Amino acid sequence: MLQSNFSGFTLEAGTDEAGRGCLSGPVVAAAVILPKDFTHPFLNDSKQLSEKKRDELRPFIEENALAFGVSFVWQEEVDEINVLQASITGMHRAIDQLKIKPEFIIIDGNKFRDYKDVPHKTIVKGDAKFLSIAAASVLAKTYRDEYMFKIHQELPVYNWQKNKGYPTKEHRNAIREFGATKYHRKTFKLLPEQLKLKL
């Protein structure tokens, strides 16, 4: 059973990101403030949900949240500032988009930078403990998957609609065969043997 609140503040924002471990595409972060009576029968950490359930949840979260924001940190910036900083920067930008200023922020994971003067708490596996972080994880994942599906249409050989940019065997084989694309993160170890790729 996910908890609705950590801090006791009414306007508590949960934030999470998707795509940190991917070889291609952006890191996408989301922030959500839920009303205190928010419930949904199957809202959980997005990794525990089927794609169909996540897609069903997204409009429900967007319609019922007090506020939400989603931000994309593109692969060039991920390469520039590193993936951990990209995750935190993405979460900050998602919080920037909230139309209500949060009184407290709870973050999935164990790393964060102060956001303005708002108190915060990092929570390991927070997306499986708190509704607002779970909701943020669903938004981050569905927005990112939608984008990966879009670029899959352009470059189907990497099968991003299925692997979403994660380092599957098939994805690595496609990089081996066709080289890296503008959507790949150049600072990531794209292949175990890290061949000189045609960038």
TrEMBL record:
Pfam families tied to this protein: RNase_HII
Compartment(s) where it occurs, according to its Swiss-Prot or TrEMBL record: Cytoplasm
The GO cellular component terms are: cytoplasm; ribonuclease H2 complex
Q: Per UniProt, where does a divalent metal cation bind?
A: 16-17, 108
The UniProt keywords, alphabetically, are: Cytoplasm, Endonuclease, Hydrolase, Manganese, Metal-binding, Nuclease
What's its EC?
3.1.26.4
Question: Which cofactor names does the annotation list?
Answer: Mg(2+); Mn(2+)
GO terms of molecular function: manganese ion binding; RNA binding; RNA-DNA hybrid ribonuclease activity
Enumerate the PROSITE patterns for this protein.
Answer: RNASE_H_2
Q: Tell me the Gene Ontology biological-process terms attached to this UniProt entry.
A: DNA replication, removal of RNA primer; mismatch repair
The entry's free-text remark on the cofactor is: Manganese or magnesium. Binds 1 divalent metal ion per monomer in the absence of substrate. May bind a second metal ion after substrate binding.
Record's catalysed reaction(s): Endonucleolytic cleavage to 5'-phosphomonoester
RNase H type-2 domain span: 10-199
Question: Is Iron set as a keyword in this record?
Answer: no
Which InterPro entries does this entry report, sorted A to Z? RNase_HII, RNase_HII/HIII, RNase_HII/HIII_dom, RNaseH-like_sf, RNaseH_sf
Q: What functional role does this protein have?
A: Endonuclease that specifically degrades the RNA of RNA-DNA hybrids.
Q: Which family does it belong to?
A: Belongs to the RNase HII family.
Tell me which NCBIfam families the record gives.
PRK00015.1-3
The record's section on PANTHER family has: RIBONUCLEASE H2 SUBUNIT A, RIBONUCLEASE HII
What HAMAP family does the entry give? RNase_HII_B
Name of the protein in its database record? Ribonuclease HII
